[in-house]
Amino acid sequence: MKKIIVSLALFAGSFACLAQDVFAPVLQQIEQSSTALQALRQQMEAEKLQNKTGLTPEDPEVEFGYLWGSPAAIGTRKDVGISQSFDFPTAYVQRGKLSALQNNSTEWHFRTERMQLLLTAKDLCIDLIYRNKMKAMYTRQLRNAERIVEAYEKMLQSGETNRMEYNKARLNLATAKEELRRTELEREQLLARLAALNGGKAIAFDVTEYAAQPLAADFEQWFLEAEANNPALQYLRSQVEVARRQVKVSQAEGLPKMSVGYMGEFVGSEHFQGISVGMSIPLWHNKNRVKQAEAAAIASAQTAEDNRLQYYHHLKSLHNQAIGLQQCVALYTSSLKENSNESLLMKAFEKGELTLLEYLLEMEYIYDCQQKQAEAEKDLAHLCAELTAYTL
After folding, report:
1. DSSP symbols for 89-149
2. Is residue 235 within 8 Å of 102, Cβ to Cβ?
3. Structural domain total, the chain
């Protein structure tokens, strides 16, 4: 049940927080190559075949008996019997309808599992975009650090600075190299996980932008569409239909079972043959089965409604968080646009207007703001991925 509840949080409705073009090529490739999805499809087909079993009458029975007489003078006796038993016809009708509903439910279950896998891949892509942005930022830091070290090395040789200042520059360079190396390692790990979802085939993903779009203002109207297009909720609804149909199957199976057949008895030159008809009287075997099926149907309906409520409140929370993060991203974006002056700081440093410490402190403010902006964009992208997962 917990798995179903988690699945419900993975779907959403009409609006798109993120442009799908960024992720579509990767997700299409994974859908074609994923061994996990191939296994899920095969499992779905096997379950569909299983649901189609038991829809026909039982196999006919054939009996033959050869009896020796005693004393031998009376000869032998041969018995032949062929019989076919079957349920009341209503049972076959109800089982056929149940099978169709079960196959429909199996389809929805596959779609839910497929969505979960593709959403996992999309989340990995979002993390990769963040790492790509960080890689670009740390690459700029490294280039600046290398320029500073080169400048301080010349200044040290000419006596314009001391060893302590030169060592600070080298420490700054070492830090930039380590941050870039760590980011590249994290990026490689994400690519490896993405390849595992892609059937072991490597995927190139160098995207650095999320292409954010506005959230829907009317959550209630949006939720109606989200609910209607939610595969996990559809799966639970299909389970309710299956449970209700099972009640009718149980009722039909409580009707008398019948059998018809042919019997023959051959003794010497005499023989007897004719038809046989039988009927079971349903007294004990199906006791409480209908009550159990009715109770299961009620429980299934209550479970579906409970999950719908949890789904609603979870999406409401995600929607509110996304709105807050949108405002946060907009604030960081405007602040960086107005105050990001990396090139001016470098020129001021090279002209001697800033000391190394002053330059590094100023750049730290800028890089810190850039990193927080990237983190806010990443968090917003993950929320939007959940809210728009029904489109996968």
Report:
1. HHHHHHHHHHHHHHHHHHHHHHHHHHHHHHHHHHHHHHHHHHHHHHHHHHHHHHHHHHHHH
2. no
3. 1
Burial class (CB in 10 A: 0-12, 13-18, 19+), 73: exposed
**pTM of the predicted protein model:** 0.83
Whole-angstrom Cα distance, residue 263 to residue 83? 8
The token pair at 286 is: 């199906």
State which residues form the domain around 213.
Answer: 2-391
In the 8-state DSSP scheme, what is residue 200?
Answer: T
Q: What CATH number did the domain enclosing 356 receive?
A: 1.20.1600.10
Per the structure block, which two tokens stand in for 147? 């320029």
CA 258 – CA 86 distance, rounded (Å): 6
User: In this structure, which long-range contacts are made by residues 281-284, counting pairs with CB atoms below 8 Å and at least 24 apart in sequence?
Assistant: 281/256, 282/254, 282/255, 282/256, 282/257
Q: Does an H or E element contain 66, and which?
A: strand 61-68
Under the banding of pLDDT at 50, 70 and 90, the label for residue 1 is: very low
111, 231 contact by CB (below 8 A): yes
Query: In this predicted model, what pLDDT tens digit does every residue of 13-43 receive, in sequence order?
Result: 333 454 457 898 999 999 999 999 999 999 9
